[in-house]
């Protein structure tokens, strides 16, 4: 049985030596990280093709490119983020130095997901390095080629005493979680998220959980439907629907539904041809387990478009289900595949009621030109993120926190939010030692009196 004690001990020893804390060290590691990604772009893309049949362009703009821009953004700001913050002072501390030190947390565990196995594993690692931590990296075994490429490259480019990769599945993860960490970041399902949370609880380890859920998408008739179809179905079809922030299901009136399906048929065939199985730009489902799960979702459903599958290849074509009953199995769990169920509602108010009666989603989308309806959604629904008139783009904005709420997760990362996630904010007072300061301070010493209390 795997034992990771020596791995974590080595990281702990390195952290305690203090070497990961300086600005120069962090900068060097981040520059090496960037070089690693740039020099091995093709190799990384090949691993993604092996795991998910992800095409090169998708690999670069949804996984690899974002790592490079994240590093650039962090390097531009790191010195300033690392400097102690100077909060406002009050009467009692007016003669003192009041600071918030941005300390690294120590040894952190980052557990990646398999759907964007490069980005969702390495993006948090960049944040953890920038905050001065040692990192144990556990890629998902469900995407083995990507996990192997991470394990091969990290020790070649980064300090092997501070950053180590552990490979394996459930039993290895279970062993790893017996170790004590100073922070755990996990990306994956809510079910496994609970297991991670329970393991962290034993050591009172803080966690960031990037989980999933059913992200709704409301569309009304004020929008240009062709644009809406493209933006929504792109969010659904990219990575064959295996995207945590994909629009999971649609809410709209019956009239919008009928027009949407007609337009979607045209758009999907424009993108992938009459049969997406032949398209070089269309991904495959990651495993037989997930394929079978998706197949079941088509039972007793009204398939308005698609429905073609090939279990041998794990090909699941873009599919739209209409007039879906909210109690149908497709509405009971996150789909995580290229199936778009449409539930019809009378209006925006009914859509909001529908959303609020369910778990808090990772994200929510609304397509409308009506500013009042936009505000209605933004002010009356709660989700990790929300986008009006587009999908997925929030992930690429380094200045926005990326994370869930409630069942879709806790904590957030990207840019400064990653730095803060892996940083301990140490409240600090450097007290003055002069006679005026001592006079003010002496008000607190006995004997007490009403005069000292100011009454
Ligand atoms: P998953 O990825 O969470 O489960 C598989 C992983 O969990 C494997 O790596 C496995 O080794 C591990 N695991 C399973 N049982 C375990 C146990 N008992 N102890 C320790 N580890 C265990 O689940 P999935 O359903 O394949 O992934 C899809 C989910 O991930 C979706 O819900 C999706 O929304 C979510 N996700 C969220 C984000 C985000 O950023 N919020 C990103 C990607 C995926």
From TrEMBL:
Pfam families: Aldedh. GO terms for molecular function: aldehyde dehydrogenase (NAD+) activity. The keyword NAD applies. InterPro entries: Ald_DH/histidinol_DH, Ald_DH_C, Ald_DH_CS_GLU, Ald_DH_N, Aldehyde_DH_dom, Aldehyde_DH_NAD(P). One of its GO terms (cellular component) is cytoplasm. The active site is at 210, 244. Residues 3-427 form the Aldehyde dehydrogenase domain. Belongs to the aldehyde dehydrogenase family. PANTHER family: ALDEHYDE DEHYDROGENASE (PTHR43570), ALDEHYDE DEHYDROGENASE TYPE III, ISOFORM Q (PTHR43570:SF16). This is Aldehyde dehydrogenase. It comes from Nezara viridula.
């Amino acid at each position: 049985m795997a034992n990771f004690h020596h791995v974590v001990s080595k990281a702990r020893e390195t952290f305690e030596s203090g070497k990961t804390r300086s600005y120069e060290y962090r900068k060097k590691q981040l520059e090496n990280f960037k070089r690693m990604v740039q020099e091995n772009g093709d190799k990384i893309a090949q691993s993604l093709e092996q795991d998910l049949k992800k095409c090169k362009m998708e690999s670069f703009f949804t996984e690899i490119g974002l790592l490079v821009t994240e590093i650039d953004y962090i390097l531009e700001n790191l010195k300033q983020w690392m400097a102690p913050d100077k909060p406002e002072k009050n009467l009692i501390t007016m003669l003192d130095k009041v600071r918030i030190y941005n300390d690294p947390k120590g040894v952190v565990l980052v557990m990646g997901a398999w759907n964007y196995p490069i980005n969702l594993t390495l993006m948090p690692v960049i944040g953890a390095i920038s905050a001065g931590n040692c990192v144990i990296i556990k890629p998902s075994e469900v995407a083995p080629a990507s996990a192997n490429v991470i394990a091969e490259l990290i020790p070649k480019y980064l300090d092997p005493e501070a950053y180590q990769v552990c490979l394996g599945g459930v039993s290895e993860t279970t062993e790893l979680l017996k170790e004590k960490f100073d922070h755990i970041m996990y990306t994956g399902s809510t079910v496994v998220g609970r297991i991670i949370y329970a393991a962290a609880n034993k050591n009172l380890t803080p966690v960031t959980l990037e989980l999933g859920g059913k992200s709704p998408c409301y569309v009304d008739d004020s929008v240009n439907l062709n644009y809406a179809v493209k933006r929504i179905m792109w969010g659904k079809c990219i990575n064959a629907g295996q995207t945590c922030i994909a629009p999971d299901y649609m809410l709209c009136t019956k009239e919008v539904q009928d027009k949407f399906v007609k337009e979607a048929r045209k758009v999907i065939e424009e993108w992938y041809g009459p049969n997406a199985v032949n398209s070089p730009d269309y991904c495959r489902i990651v495993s037989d387990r997930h394929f079978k799960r998706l197949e079941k979702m088509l039972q007793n459903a009204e398939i308005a478009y698609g429905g073609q599958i090939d279990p041998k290849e794990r090909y699941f074509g873009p599919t739209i289900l209409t007039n879906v009953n909210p109690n149908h199995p497709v509405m009971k769990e996150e789909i995580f595949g290229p199936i778009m169920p449409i539930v019809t509602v009378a209006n925006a108010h009914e859509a909001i009621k529908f959303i609020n009666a369910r778990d808090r989603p990772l994200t929510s989308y609304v397509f409308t030109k009506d500013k009042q309806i936009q505000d209605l959604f933004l002010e009356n629904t709660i989700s990790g993120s929300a986008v009006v008139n587009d999908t997925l783009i929030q992930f690429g904005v380094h200045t926005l926190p990326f994370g869930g709420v409630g069942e879709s997760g806790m904590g957030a990362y990207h840019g400064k939010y990653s730095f803060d996630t892996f940083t301990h904010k140490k409240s600090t007072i450097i007290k003055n030692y002069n006679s005026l300061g001592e006079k003010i301070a002496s008000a607190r010493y006995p004997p007490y009196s009403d005069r000292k209390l100011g009454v």
